[in-house]
Design a protein that fits this description.
By secondary structure, the chain is an alpha+beta fold. The protein has two domains: 35 residues; 70 residues, SP0830-like domains (Alpha-Beta Plaits, 2-Layer Sandwich), CATH 3.30.70.1280. The chain has four helices and four strands, in the order H-E-H-E-E-H-E-H. A four-stranded antiparallel sheet has the order 2-3-1-4. A hairpin with a 4-residue loop joins strand 2 and strand 3. The longest helix is centred in the first third of the chain and has 34 residues. It starts with a helix and ends with a helix. Keywords: Membrane, Transmembrane, Transmembrane helix.
C-alpha cells in the first residue's frame, strides 16, 4: 500500500516537471515573437563609446535591455543579428571589425522550438 503512494507521487511529479517545461517554452516563444530576440552588441576599437540609447531611429527597431559603460548593449529586436550589425555599421560609419552582434537565445532543444 505504501509503495502505491510513492508511485503516484512519482508520476504526479513527472507530470508537473513536464508541465513546467511546457509553460516556460510557451512563455519564451510568446516573448520572442512579441518583443524580438535577445542580442549582445559589443563595440570595440572605437575611441569614444557610442550612445545607442540616444539614437531615436533605432528605438523603433530594438529595445535596449541593459548597457554597460564599456560599449556593450543587450537588446531585444525583431531584426536578425546580421540586420542589426549592418544597420549599426551604416548608421555610425563603422568597420565590420568594430561591431560584434551575438545572439543570446537558448540553444539546444528549447532553442529549436
Amino acid at each position: 500500500m505504501e509503495m502505491d503512494y510513492v508511485y503516484i507521487i512519482f508520476i504526479v511529479g513527472i507530470f508537473l516537471v513536464i508541465y513546467a517545461v511546457y509553460q516556460a517554452t510557451k512563455s519564451m516563444l510568446f516573448v520572442s515573437k512579441t518583443y524580438g530576440y535577445n542580442y549582445l552588441i559589443r563595440f570595440q576599437k572605437i575611441e569614444d563609446i557610442l550612445d545607442v540609447k540616444a539614437n531615436k531611429q533605432f528605438h523603433r527597431k530594438f529595445r535596449i535591455v541593459s548597457h554597460s559603460s564599456k560599449g556593450v548593449y543587450t537588446v531585444q529586436s525583431k531584426w536578425s543579428d546580421r540586420e542589426l550589425k549592418e544597420n549599426i555599421i551604416k548608421e555610425y560609419r563603422l568597420d565590420d571589425n568594430q561591431v560584434t552582434v551575438q545572439s543570446l537565445q537558448i540553444s539546444g532543444a528549447l532553442g529549436m522550438v
